[in-house]
Each structure stands twice: as C-alpha cells, then as structure tokens.
C-alpha cells in the first residue's frame, strides 16, 4: 500500500519532459518533490505564476509571492507572473499539459466531485471547475476509500459534481487505474496489494485484463 | 496628463453607499486593498454585495466587514479560511454565490472590455450551470456567463503614478488588473505613488484610463496566511 508520498511518487512518473503542470492542494503538491531526473517541467499556480520553485528559506518569505494554497513560495529562472484572467486563459485554452488534483469521489465515467458536501462543508470550487472542464490530461490523486472505509471510486458520484467525463487516470494508495468506456481499468497494483483488495475497495466497475503488474517506484 | 490622484482614502471612497456592489482584488490576503477595506469598515456601509475571490480570514481582509455584518452577499470562488463566513452562510444570514475562479476573473474582464457575456466550459454538467443557457461549439458544451455590474472596484497595486497607471508585484497581481475599469468607479491604492513620467510606459500593467482615483495607502500589513519555509542545508 502507498502513503501520500508514494502516491505522489507514482504520479511523478507520468510527468514528461516539457510539460506545464498545474498541481492541486494536498497530495498533488507533493509531486513536485519527485520530478524524474533528466526532464524539465514547469509548475503553474492559478493565482498567477508559472515556474514555481520550492518554499523560501526562513526569513526570505515574501507576502507578495504565494501559491494557490496561499503558501509562501519562490520562483525558478524563467518564471513569470500574470493576472487571474490570463492564468485561466492558459488553463481553458489547454496550454497547461497536465492537471493533478485531489477528489472526494470519482465515477466510472470520469465525473469528479471535490468541492462541496451539502450541509456540512462548503468551501467553494476555487479553480477546480475551470481546470477539469478544460484540461486534456487529468490525474486524480486520492485515497481509494474515505475515512469511513467507503469506496471513492463509484458507479456515480453522490456529491455535487465539479466536472463530468474528465478524469483520465487515478492513483490511489492501492492502485493506478484508467477511466475507460465501462469502468475503471486496473493498470498497476500498489506494492503488496492484491487484485482482490482493489476489487473490494472499488464500488464502480473494475476492469481487470491480463496480468496486472505491481508498481515500480524509483 | 489627466490627474487621478486623491489625497487620502476618505476622498477615494466618496460616493460609497449602502446597498452597492463592490469588486475587491486579492487572492487570499495577497494583494488585497487593505486601506479601502479599513475605510469601508469605518464608513459602516451595509447591505453591500462583494465580488472577491475569497472572503479574507476572521480578523483581516473582508473578514472585518463580515464581523460587522456589513455584507449582504458574497460572490467568490473559495471561502475556506473564514469561520465567521461559514457560520453566516450556513445560518442563512449571508447570501453566497460560489462560482469557478476562472469564470470570476472573466466576468470582471468582460465588464472591463465591453462584452455582455461569454461562453465557458467551466461548470458544465454541475449545479453552477443550473438555469443557465448552454451551447455546443465544436462538439463541446459551454455555459453562458454574464459580465459583472459593479459600482466600485477597489484594487491594490505596487506602484502607480498620478495618471493612474499601475504596476503590480508578484502574485499580488491576481484579480486586481481584471477589476480595473470593470466597475463604474475604480479606486486604486498603491504602496508607492510617483509623479507622472517616472514609470517606464513599457512596464505599465494597467493604463490609467481604467482608473478613476488613485492614492497611496497609509500602511500595508501584508499578512501571510500560510508561512511555509524550508531549512538551509
């Protein structure tokens, strides 16, 4: 089974040289720590920066330079700042190659819910609806089940949707899956996890074809 | 040169009344018009509608107006850091319209640039699109969204000149440029107000035509919401 860092490490293997990537808050943020050697990627933050760098050294924080999680950050050589309208122009115009974000639920048709639990939690969608409506390549990083042990990979989402038919891949603590016609196609098992474990934790239709390799994290 | 300078925040906000709609720049607490917000608290205008990406925190930013129950309605994309906001929203005291962040920015820009409405893919198939016109273009579905209409836009820039030209710094830029000229009156506050001719015209982010009043803010707290650092090796 993978922990949060393990999920981030597996997702990082999906990065390709030259990709512009938008990272959501939570597990996706950790992906930046595991960029494969020998490739160049640039991180976009929707509040208006391309070429995001690591956190600043203590004493070097700048209140005017933050990421979408409102954390103080630095910039890399070649970075740029821009306004919110241009930022979402980059996103809607599909200039950003990959979006990685968290979710509360994903359906077998690729719908995603991650912004609202009616009556309990209403924080808002932020940029998530713009991102999922436009990105060609969306990977969801999340735990396979919620805190109550219920599957988060469902036939249909029960929570208010963020977007429809948009999720391409999902990396959980148990597996790497691809959304295809008819359900979640199992591509890889997390270390030490059996197909049966994954089947039990998946409410939506799980498609298992041929040998399913165990993930290799390097 | 057409001068846009006003001597202080009080004059900059003259004409502000109960029931008006305001746009306020900023992302979280980054790049918010701190001086205009403090003056709105002092003026105690009520029943106002605020268009702002976030709602501040409990004791800073728009949270200060929320505490005094001056806000009737918020139009935002993310309101996660404010307990008083959540309380007022869940109790029904505060009307809240949550909209996608890119849609929020574009509804400002549409107002600035003279578009009554536009189509966006954001929110299609979700409750955000309920009751709105949808349309297919090239095999993909889009939602019709309308330009905002606001009485005042309060923005914050790093530097500005007497002509109202503005330069922003870092990610404090965010929604501020999109809101300039998007309301009947745009009030810009800056950290440094300089004479016309001082700023290089090549470096201006927002031309002064979009700004009706400009003043130098008295002080800027520039509070950091999430101070994150790494250790030196």
TrEMBL record, chain A:
Task: Mark the transmembrane ranges.
Answer: none
Which one of the record's GO molecular function terms can you name?
CoA-transferase activity
Q: Which UniProt keywords apply?
A: Transferase
**What PANTHER family would the database entry show?**
KETOACID-COENZYME A TRANSFERASE, SUCCINYL-COA:3-KETOACID COENZYME A TRANSFERASE SUBUNIT B-RELATED
The yes or no answer to whether the keyword Transmembrane helix is present is: no
| Any single Pfam family the record assigns to this protein | CoA_trans
Task: Give yes or no: UniProt keyword Transferase.
Answer: yes
User: What name is this protein filed under?
Assistant: 3-oxoacid CoA-transferase subunit B
List each coiled-coil range. none
The family this protein is said to belong to: Belongs to the 3-oxoacid CoA-transferase subunit B family.
UniProtKB/TrEMBL annotation, chain B:
Output the PROSITE patterns linked to this UniProt entry.
COA_TRANSF_1
Q: Mind telling me which Gene3D superfamilies this protein's record contains?
A: Glutaconate Coenzyme A-transferase
Assigned keywords, A-Z: Transferase
Please indicate which superkingdom the organism of origin belongs to.
Bacteria
Q: Which GO terms describe its molecular function?
A: CoA-transferase activity
Work out whether the entry's keyword set contains Transferase. yes
For this protein, the record's SMART domains field holds: CoA_trans (SM00882)
Transferase as a keyword? yes
- Which InterPro entries does the annotation name? 3-oxoacid_CoA-transf_A, CoA_trans_fam_I, CoA_transf_BS, NagB/RpiA_transferase-like
Q: Which family does it belong to?
A: Belongs to the 3-oxoacid CoA-transferase subunit A family.
The entry's protein name is: 3-oxoacid CoA-transferase subunit A
């Amino acid at each position: 089974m993978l922990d949060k860092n393990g999920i981030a490490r597996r997702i990082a293997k999906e990065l390709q040289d030259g990709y512009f990537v938008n990272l959501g808050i939570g597990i996706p943020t950790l992906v930046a720590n595991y960029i494969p050697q020998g490739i160049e990627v640039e991180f976009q933050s929707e509040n208006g920066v391309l070429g995001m760098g690591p956190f600043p050294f203590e004493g070097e924080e700048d209140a005017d330079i933050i990421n979408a999680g409102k954390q103080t950050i630095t910039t890399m050589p070649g970075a740029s700042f821009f306004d919110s309208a241009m930022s979402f122009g980059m996103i809607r115009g599909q200039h950003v190659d990959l979006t990685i974000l968290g979710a509360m639920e994903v359906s077998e048709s690729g719908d995603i819910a991650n912004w609202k639990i009616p009556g309990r939690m209403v924080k808002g969608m932020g940029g998530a609806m713009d991102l999922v409506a436009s990105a060609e390549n969306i990977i969801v990083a999340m735990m396979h089940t919620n805190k109550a042990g219920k599957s988060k990979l469902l036939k249909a989402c029960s929570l208010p949707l963020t977007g429809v038919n948009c999720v391409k891949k999902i990396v959980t603590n148990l597996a790497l899956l691809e959304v295809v016609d008819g359900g979640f196609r199992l591509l890889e098992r997390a270390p030490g996890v059996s197909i049966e474990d994954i089947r039990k934790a998946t409410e939506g239709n799980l498609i298992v074809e041929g040998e399913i390799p165990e993930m290799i994290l390097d | 040169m057409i001068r846009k300078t006003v001597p202080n925040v009080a004059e900059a906000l003259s004409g502000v009344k109960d029931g008006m709609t305001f746009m306020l720049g900023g992302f979280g607490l980054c790049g918010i018009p701190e001086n205009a917000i403090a003056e709105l608290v002092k003026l105690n205008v009520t029943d106002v509608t605020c268009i702002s990406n976030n709602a501040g925190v409990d004791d800073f930013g728009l949270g200060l107006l929320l505490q005094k129950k001056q806000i009737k309605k918020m139009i935002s994309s993310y309101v996660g850091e404010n307990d008083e906001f959540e309380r007022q929203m869940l109790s029904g005291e505060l009307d809240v319209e949550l909209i996608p962040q890119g849609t929020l920015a574009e509804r400002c820009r549409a107002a600035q640039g003279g578009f009554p409405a536009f189509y966006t893919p954001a929110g299609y198939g979700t409750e955000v699109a309920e009751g709105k016109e949808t349309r297919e273009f090239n095999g993909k579905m889009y939602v019709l969204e309308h330009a905002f209409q606001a009485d005042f836009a309060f923005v914050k820039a790093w530097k500005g000149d007497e002509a109202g030209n503005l330069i922003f710094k870092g990610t404090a830029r965010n929604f501020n440029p999109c809101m300039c000229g998007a309301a009947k009156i745009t009030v810009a506050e800056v950290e440094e107000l300089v004479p016309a001719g001082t700023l290089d015209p090549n470096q201006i982010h927002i031309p002064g035509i979009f700004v009706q009043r400009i003043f130098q803010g008295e002080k800027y707290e520039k509070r950091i919401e999430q101070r994150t650092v790494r250790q030196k090796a």
